[in-house]
Amino acid sequence: MSHFSCIWACKQITKAILRGSRSRYRSTFQKRVSLYFTRCYQPPRSVGFSSCLTESATQKLEDVYKYWSNKFLSHNIGEADVSANYIVAHVLGHKTIYNLDAHTLLNQTQVDKINELCHLRLTGMPVQYVLGEWDFLDLTLTMRPPVLIPRPETEELALLCIETLLNDIEIERPTVLEIGCGSGALSLSLLKKCPKLQVVAVDISPTACSLTQENARSLGLMDRICVIQGDFTSDKVQLELSRLSAFPLIVSNPPYLTTDELTGLQSEIKCFEDPTALDGGLDGLDIIKEIILKAPDLLMTNGHLWMEVSHQQPPLIAKLVQDSHNDICLIEVVKDLFGKDRICHFQKKETGKRK
Ligand SMILES: C[S@@+](CC[C@H](N)C(=O)[O-])C[C@H]1O[C@@H](n2cnc3c(N)ncnc32)[C@H](O)[C@@H]1O
C-alpha cells in the first residue's frame, strides 16, 4: 500500500469502522481515521480539473490546487489530488484546503513555496518528507528521509499498548522498551498518553535516533526517554538493556518484509526510505526471531510484548514460539483495520527464570 492510504484503503477502513471494535481506544483511532479520510479525500468546494495556469503569477487557491493536481496526475505521481491538497494546505498553515475559501488569493511568497514543495513531490519524494512533518495519532512529528514514515497500522499498535499500560500493568512508574524506534512515533505516543511512563528506545540507525530525540524535545518528552543507538541483536546492546530493570512491556514494529517483497515495493519507498527499516531478510523473520529469543530475558514475569508483523507471519511466529521452548507465549493476534492478522501479543509465562 502507498504511504498515505488510497481511496480503496479508506473504503476498507470505513467498512472496518462499521464492523465495530475491540477496545475503547479503537474508537479514538476510528475517529482519527475518519478525520484522516475527510482530510485526504474531500476535494475543496467548486474545485474541478479544468483550468491550468503558469507557476508564477499571484493566484487563486483553487487554481493553484488544480494546476498541481493535474501536473501530478500527468506525471503519474501517486494520489495526485491528495498530494496537492496536503502541500497547498501546509503552506497556508492548515491540514486540508477543504475548509478554506477556494477563491482565497495567495501571495507570491506562498505560491513560490507551494511550487518549491510541489517540484520536490514531482521527483517522487513522499509527501510526508516534502512537508517535513506527519501526524501520528494526535502528535505532529518531524519527518526526514530516510527514517521510516509511520504507517496508519502502527497507530493501532500504539493504541493497543496504551490500553495494556493503562489496564493491565500495575506498576506506578513503568518503563517500556521499544525496539526500532524510527521517528519515535510509537514511543512518544505512549509517553504522551501515559504520564508516569518512561521509555528506552533502541534503533540501529543514528539518523533515526537523532530524529526520535528531536521529536521528543519538541514535544517536551526528552526527560522521559532514553535513546540507545545500536543493533538490538548485539551483545553490547543486550548488556546495556539487561542492566536496566526488567520491562513490563516491549513494543516493536520491526523490519518484517521478505527480500522478495522488498524488491517489489513502490519506487517512492525504495528510493527514499532506509531499507534497513523494512528488510527482514529472506523470510522476513530475521529480527522477529531475535526479539522472540531475547524478549524473555528482558521482560518481567507476566510482561507483555506487542509486535507488528506482516499478515502471513502469525502462523510462522506461533511455530517459532512453540519451538523456542522459552518463557514466552503468543496470546493473541489482532487484526488491523483492513481485517488482516497483523499485530501479535505475547506474554511472559510465570514459569522459568523469574525477574
Ligand atoms: C519498520 S521501522 C519502524 C520505525 C518506527 N517504530 C515506526 O513504527 O514508524 C523499523 C526500525 O527498526 C530499526 N532497526 C532495524 N534493524 C535493527 C536492529 N538490528 N536493531 C535496532 N533497530 C533496528 C530500523 O532502523 C527502523 O527504524
UniProtKB/TrEMBL annotation:
Catalysed reactions, semicolon-separated: L-glutaminyl-[peptide chain release factor] + S-adenosyl-L-methionine = N(5)-methyl-L-glutaminyl-[peptide chain release factor] + S-adenosyl-L-homocysteine + H(+)
Annotated GO MF terms: nucleic acid binding; peptide chain release factor N(5)-glutamine methyltransferase activity
Pfam families on file: MTS, PrmC_N
Alphabetical list of InterPro entries matching this protein: DNA_methylase_N6_adenine_CS, HemK-like, N5-glutamine_MTase, PrmC_N, RF_methyltr_PrmC, SAM-dependent_MTases_sf, Small_mtfrase_dom
Ranges for domain Methyltransferase small: 165-259
Keyword Zinc-finger: no
Residue span, Release factor glutamine methyltransferase N-terminal domain: 65-132
CDD domains, per database record: AdoMet_MTases (cd02440)
Originating organism: Biomphalaria glabrata
One GO BP: methylation
GO CC entries: mitochondrion
Entry keyword set: Methyltransferase, S-adenosyl-L-methionine, Transferase
This enzyme's EC code(s): 2.1.1.297
Name of this chain's protein: peptide chain release factor N(5)-glutamine methyltransferase
Keyword Transferase: yes
